[in-house]
Amino acid sequence: MRENIFQILKATLAAAIVSLLCALIFSFIIGIFSLPADIIKPVNQVFKILAIALGGVLFIRGGRGLFKGAIYGVCAVLVTYLVFAIISSSFAVSWLFVLEIALGAVAGGISGVIGVNLKGRR
After folding, report:
1. Which of 19, 49, 63, 64 is the most core-located residue (most Cβ within 10 A)?
2. Where exactly are the structural domains of the chain?
């Protein structure tokens, strides 16, 4: 049980850090190339899903990958949302946030299944 919690925590922290770094790099790219503001949200969603996938593949192992991955995906979405809300000083929840949580659970579940089935990680 303790190992499962640590796996979820490590994967969540990794996803939050990767997502934050991607957003930081993307903000520099937006500033340099003067990209339109309407691409920010979709690109940030892609970064968040990729960060969730990376964290799950790297840190979810053992058994029950789908379950641990889904929990991890939800946790990763909540943590990244809170971090970005603190940075932007705005906290607004909409119906899209529920969709984002579901997408995070799916991405986490898939990456958890991949993570537990990689050779040498059992």
Report:
1. 19
2. 2-117
